[in-house]
């Protein structure tokens, strides 16, 4: 998605080849940062979920295990936090899932920073609008559900 | 069939999710088309828990594959972010209307639309790259045109973007459907970018892949708080889909656009059939 010399970038044209190349390098760097953030988020969530799963099946297969209550799992931020404090394996899984569910939001936030580094203000605005709509949907979702 | 705490359930759901993530990553879908019928029809789980797991599947497919697609410069981040305004707004509207919407009829309409959309795709089945596309005014203003390195063709492919207003409107509808019916609607996003905006197939599917995660995140909080995301069901789905999407993302670059189109069309028909089935079962119950 590297824009070469399209009509919509008169500044880049006027400045000639060297700044354009710097700009391409910046865009490349921004892409690598977004890719890196995604990778970290995904690996982190997979690791946490895996720890929770192993911990769950460990207690499930040991003598005490059949007392595990699988119907009750935390599904609020407070509940997950409280469960984590007790080392509850279902809360660990839920925490890992939350990290996973947050990766797209992290992607949008990082994109805003990346477009700002490229000095592409149109896309800083566009991406900020997306983030605002996401935040509104979270707030309304909590209130309405 | 074994149910939730059983290890066999975990293994079976993990394996099926691996497949869903692999295929989903290739064609820009979230894997809900496989996950929902698997959990409801094969394992007899309630639909709300299947939809909760499918939201997890959509985000896992998206984030699992997007890292590779963005790094390999297949995703058009500008097109994705601009259209994301339409899909998130649509999802927000849909979530509001969901209470009063006639779900059964909507599934039937959406299924019918997808079946009809398969026709222009089938006509262009052998098309490797779109030809004669000229960027429209909005595409020029927003700098949407781009290029991607095509490993299969062994060259850098430059492309233009057209019919942006039409694509934007289709994305709003895609978001609306997501919010109303609790589905990812990646199929409709690929259609908007391929058929209306005329992006190369690989760019369409990888950009759809990037977008579906953000759209799904808009409604994920609601499902989470409602308790629809059951950890013992969502965990094998998340781990399986992440593994599958990682493999899929490594495969896509080497495939031709034609191959991906050939993979996408039968899936589109499958999704349409599933929507018609779900619509029918809502109406006749």
Which features would summarize this protein structure in a list?
heterodimer; A: mainly alpha; 5 helices; elongated; disordered N terminus; B: 285 residues; mainly alpha; two-stranded antiparallel ribbon; 4% strand; globular
| DSSP summary: helix tally of chain A | 5
Helix content of chain B: over 70%
Order of helices and strands of chain B: HHHHHHEEHHHHH
Number of distinct beta strands of chain B: 2
* Major sheet description of chain B: 2 strands, antiparallel
Description:
The complex is a heterodimer of chains A (145) and B (285). Chain A contains five helices and no strands. Chain A is mainly alpha-helical and 145 residues long. In chain A, helix 2 (17-61) packs antiparallel against helix 4. Chain A is elongated. Chain A starts with 9 loop residues before the first helix and ends with a helix. A two-stranded antiparallel sheet of chain B has the order 1-2. In chain B, strand 1 (146-150) and strand 2 (155-159) form a beta hairpin. At the A-B interface, helix 2, helix 4 and helix 5 of A face helix 3, helix 4, helix 6, strand 1 and helix 9 of B.
Quick recap:
With 145 residues, chain A is mainly α. Chain A is 78% helix and 0% strand.
Chart the SSEs and their pairings.
The complex is a heterodimer of chains A (145) and B (285).
Chain A: H1 10-15, H2 17-61, H3 77-85, H4 89-117, H5 121-144
Helix pairs in contact in A: 2-4, 3-4, 4-5
Chain B: H1 7-27, H2 32-42, H3 47-71, H4 77-97, H5 103-123, H6 137-142, E1 146-150, E2 155-159, H7 164-181, H8 186-196, H9 201-226, H10 231-252, H11 257-283
Antiparallel strand pairs in B: 1-2
